[in-house]
Specification:
Number of helices of chain A: 7
Order of helices and strands of chain A: HHHHHHH
Shape of chain A: globular
Structural class of chain B: mainly alpha
Strand content of chain A: under 5%
Oligomer: heterodimer
Shape of chain B: globular
Number of strands of chain A: 0
Helix content of chain A: over 70%
Number of helices of chain B: 7
Structural class of chain A: mainly alpha
Order of helices and strands of chain B: HHHHHHH
Helix content of chain B: over 70%
Largest sheet of chain B: none
Strand content of chain B: under 5%
Number of domains of chain B: 2
Chain lengths: 156, 185
């Protein structure tokens, strides 16, 4: 079991950000898998709280989640390490893509890759929700809140 | 000063985009395409596509891309830092409050009540992506059973089964689905 210190937090945040294809919720799904299921650094409830708070606060939820988990694990310096790790992959990757934009714009297999990855992202999101509902829906009231919000989200 | 302008505009985007991800797109588009003219609309649409196939949050991807196209790598850094700064400030305060009050009745009751809503948000995000991947549209009212792409459905089911075994990390499942997509579509 890796120790929870600054280099490890930086490294895990970097890895999470570098593998979160599709943005916020996907990163949170991956975060839950690593921090909750594999390392046991955060409980299922804490992970849900991190998700709720990072969605409520303005800004990219991936960065918000990095600040929260980093702070929870190692105070302000932990938050800084987590944010640095989260920023680096998109910064480097998108700068490279921007530099070679004219070559990248007409890649023939991009559409197939995109649709395939969407199927994978959909599966990851469903898998995450199924895992989270176990600790989030404990009372009938919770199921009602879930249903009401779901209808609101889908209709508007 | 272009670097400062990039930092400032993305600072505002970071501070004002509630709801994250796709909810922040109209704001980014308005600033980057319409007001500042840093990207054309086609370039902006390409950033969205590239965001789908590259890791990382969409707002940060847009910031790096627009920053680089406008002022090189330093511009990319300025835009990224601008976009991140509001989150760091606001969420650090939230984190301190959370650690201090999460055992308190009011705060913990509030969080317990929000948790099902969080599940609903992720579920609706799943519904949107699944509708695009399986039916080719993100408008739910347009969905008809005849539009169902069976290849996508099989790929989705396969990915879900693979995740259920807990032997393959989710990121690898997504990349694998993308590779299957190149071969199958």
């Amino acid at each position: 079991m890796p120790k929870n210190n600054l280099p490890t937090i930086f490294f895990y945040s970097l890895r999470l950000s570098a593998s979160a294809f599709g943005g916020g919720y996907v990163l949170i799904s991956l975060m839950r898998r690593i921090y909750t299921e594999r390392l046991g650094w955060l409980t299922e409830e804490e992970m849900l709280d991190v998700t709720a708070l990072s969605q409520t606060a303005p800004g990219a939820s991936a960065v918000n989640a990095a600040v929260l988990t980093g702070y929870k694990l190692h105070g302000i310096s932990g938050a800084a390490a987590a944010v640095a790790g989260t920023l680096l992959p998109p910064l480097v990757i998108m700068s490279v893509l921007a530099a070679f934009y004219n070559t990248f714009a007409e890649v023939p297999f991009l559409a197939g890759l995109l649709t395939g990855m969407q199927c994978g992202v959909a599966a990851v999101l469903l898998h995450t929700v199924l895992g989270m509902t176990k600790s989030a829906l404990k009372k009938p009231l919770h199921a009602i809140i879930f249903a009401v919000f779901l209808v609101l989200m889908l209709v508007f | 000063m272009l670097y400062f302008e990039l930092f400032l505009q993305f600072f505002l985007i970071g501070a004002l985009s509630f709801g994250g991800g796709y909810a922040s797109l109209p704001l980014i588009q308005k600033t980057v395409v319409e007001q500042q003219g840093w990207l054309t609309f086609t370039e902006f649409a390409d950033v969205l596509t590239l965001s789908e196939v590259t890791p990382g949050p969409i707002a940060l991807n847009a910031a790096s891309f627009a920053g680089y196209r406008t002022a090189g790598f330093a511009g990319s850094i300025a835009a990224t830092l601008g976009c991140t700064a509001p989150s760091c400030i606001i969420v650090s305060i939230l984190a301190v409050l959370y650690m201090k009050y999460r055992q308190g009745d009011l705060f913990s009751n509030l969080l317990t009540a929000i948790r099902p809503a969080v599940c609903a948000m992720i579920f609706s995000s799943f519904a949107a992506v699944a509708s695009l991947a399986l039916f080719g549209t993100s408008v739910f009212s347009e969905i008809a059973l005849s539009m169902l792409n069976t290849v996508s459905l099989l790929l989705f089911a396969g990915a879900l089964l693979l995740l259920g075994t807990k032997t393959v990390p989710p990121a690898a499942v997504i990349v694998l689905s993308g590779i299957c997509g190149i071969i199958l579509f």
